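Researcher: I'd like a candidate sequence for this fold, 274 residues long. If you have to choose between options at a position, lean toward the conservative one.
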């Protein structure tokens, strides 16, 4: 499923697996692919830039896919690079279409925003962002129709070094105000020897209108992002280790009576009485 920009035919905006499987879980991967449709000519970037984390979350799709296989549960993953448009951002986020990412200027994005080339900005929303978002919504609706409140796990990865500083966390959980999955995950990971596990590290999980805000927070569903350091999931064996841990964790989570239910916690970004 991992794709690199090439002269090949255009790919759909998302890919799925096991949609009719165990609907108690939904695994998603927002930054699964570095694929750019041929007409975008790599957004003016040298091809090697598409192998960096600025284009995709390296290793994340492999782990997400293994979790989905082992649980026989639905997986929804993007099939476009976040350099084209970032599905883990709100439509009002200025970083929805990145113009500069970790020192790399993105030539093909410089004028793509609501105030410049609005037509292209809207085209990317309509062809890539919305179909991926709608696929997640559809899977959640199918679970709800079946009387299930699914646990949503979003799989991401991060670089071992950021701006010259080594990141100490092997992995971390990102969350907003819903503590159900995050607290249990931190407790579970604390039992693993020598594992440095972050609480809203290396990023803050309180991003307004991101994927889990739209589909987890807004629906009262248990949800979390797992961030995996890329050198922890480089090889197939490493990916197996992390997939096994997360499968074990998800089985534990779904066994807890107060987790797999609809509960509304809201967000730190919500208006005081909103």
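Model: Candidate sequence:
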């Amino acid at each position: 499923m991992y794709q690199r920009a090439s002269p090949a035919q255009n790919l759909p905006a998302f890919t799925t697996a096991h949609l009719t499987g165990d609907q108690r879980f939904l695994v998603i991967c927002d930054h699964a692919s570095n694929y750019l449709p041929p007409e975008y000519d790599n957004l003016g970037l040298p091809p090697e830039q598409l192998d960096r984390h600025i284009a995709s979350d390296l290793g994340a799709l492999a782990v997400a896919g293994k979790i989905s296989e082992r649980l026989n549960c639905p997986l929804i993953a993007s099939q476009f690079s976040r350099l084209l448009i970032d599905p883990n951002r709100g439509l009002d986020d200025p970083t929805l279409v990145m113009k500069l990412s970790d020192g790399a200027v993105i030539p093909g994005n410089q004028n793509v925003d609501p105030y410049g080339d609005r037509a292209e900005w809207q085209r990317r929303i309509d062809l890539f962002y919305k179909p991926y978002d709608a696929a997640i919504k559809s899977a959640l609706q199918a679970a709800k129709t079946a009387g299930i409140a699914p646990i949503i796990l979003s799989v991401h990865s991060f670089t071992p070094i950021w701006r010259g500083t080594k990141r100490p966390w092997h992995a971390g959980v990102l969350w907003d105000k819903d503590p159900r999955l995050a607290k249990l995950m931190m407790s579970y990971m604390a039992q693993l020897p020598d594992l440095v596990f972050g609480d809203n590290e290396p990023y803050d999980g309180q991003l307004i209108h991101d994927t889990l805000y739209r589909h987890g927070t807004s629906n009262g569903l248990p949800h979390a992002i797992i961030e995996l350091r890329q050198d922890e999931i480089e090889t197939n064996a490493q990916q197996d280790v992390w997939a096994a841990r997360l499968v074990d964790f998800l089985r534990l989570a779904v066994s807890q009576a107060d987790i797999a239910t609809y509960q509304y916690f809201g967000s730190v970004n919500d208006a005081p009485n909103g």
